[in-house]
Amino acid sequence: MAEVYLRRLSRWQAEQQRHSVADVHVTAYRGAAGAEYRDRQGFLSRFEQHVQRTGFDMVVADATGLVGCAYGFRADRAGEWWAGFRGDLPTEIEELTASGRTFLLAELMVLPAHRREGIATRLGERLLARLATDLVVAAVDRPVDDGRENAAAQTLHAWGWSQLGELAPRAFSDAGSGAGPGRETVAQEVWIRRPLR
């Protein structure tokens, strides 16, 4: 197996790699048969918007081709990420977002053939290591009630993140998490953590 190297991409490099990143997305999130094109187009549309966001940052894992990536950006000061939050959002969270000190982890994905090698952990650590923010937020789809456990939520919990609450369906789609035009969405769990300094 080839050695996996991590590298940070500039905004321009990320835009140049968008099709390779979309390939990783489609493979990492294999959906319903025949939905790959729509999923790819939806991802490319979101990615184009995300790359333009303030504070966009991206790290990729490469082993003779992309095998994973993680990216995010600073939350909009208007706080749109919490639209649809169920329950009372803590005042501190609102204040951190309003002051521009919240980073949204929009995507973290690794090809199935490279999972369980610590790549996701390395990507997350590298992406968040140099943040000048006081809070990191991520949303993951809640599993449908079919008895399956939510691997993304389990991973965030293992990394020391805390569950903040839940968003109504489609509330976090612009900020990330894989929801997009023409794609059915589910409620999402919101997870937070303080960056390591």
The computed structural class is alpha+beta
Please identify, by name, the CATH architecture.
3-Layer(aba) Sandwich
Main beta sheet, described? 8 strands, mixed
- State the order of secondary-structure elements, H for helix, E for strand: EHHHEEEHEHEHEE
Spatial strand order of the main sheet: 1-2-3-5-6-8-7-4
State the share of residues found in helices, binned by percent.
25-40%
**Helix segment tally:** 6
Radius of gyration: 16 Å
Q: Which regions have little confidence, pLDDT < 50, spanning 5+ residues?
A: 171-184
Name the CATH superfamily classification: Gcn5-related N-acetyltransferase (GNAT)
**Total domain count:** 1
Strand content range: 25-35%
Distance between the termini: 33 Å
CATH class: Alpha Beta
> What would the CATH topology be?
Aminopeptidase
Protein name: N-acetyltransferase domain-containing protein
Organism: Streptomyces sp. R41
InterPro entries: Acyl_CoA_acyltransferase
Account of the protein in words:
- It comes from Streptomyces sp. R41.
- This is N-acetyltransferase domain-containing protein.
- The protein has 197 residues and is of the alpha+beta class.
- The chain has one domain (5-193): Gcn5-related N-acetyltransferase (GNAT) (Aminopeptidase), CATH 3.40.630.30.
- 30% of the residues lie in helices and 25% in strands.
- It has helices at residues 11-16, 18-28, 36-51, 91-98, 119-129, 151-158, and strands at 5-9, 57-62, 66-74, 85-86, 102-110, 135-141, 162-167, 188-193.
- It has an eight-stranded mixed β-sheet with strand order 1-2-3-5-6-8-7-4, sandwiched between helices.
- Strand 5 (102-110), helix 5 (119-129) and strand 6 form a beta-alpha-beta unit.
- The chain is globular and about 45 Å long.
- The N and C termini lie far apart (33 Å).
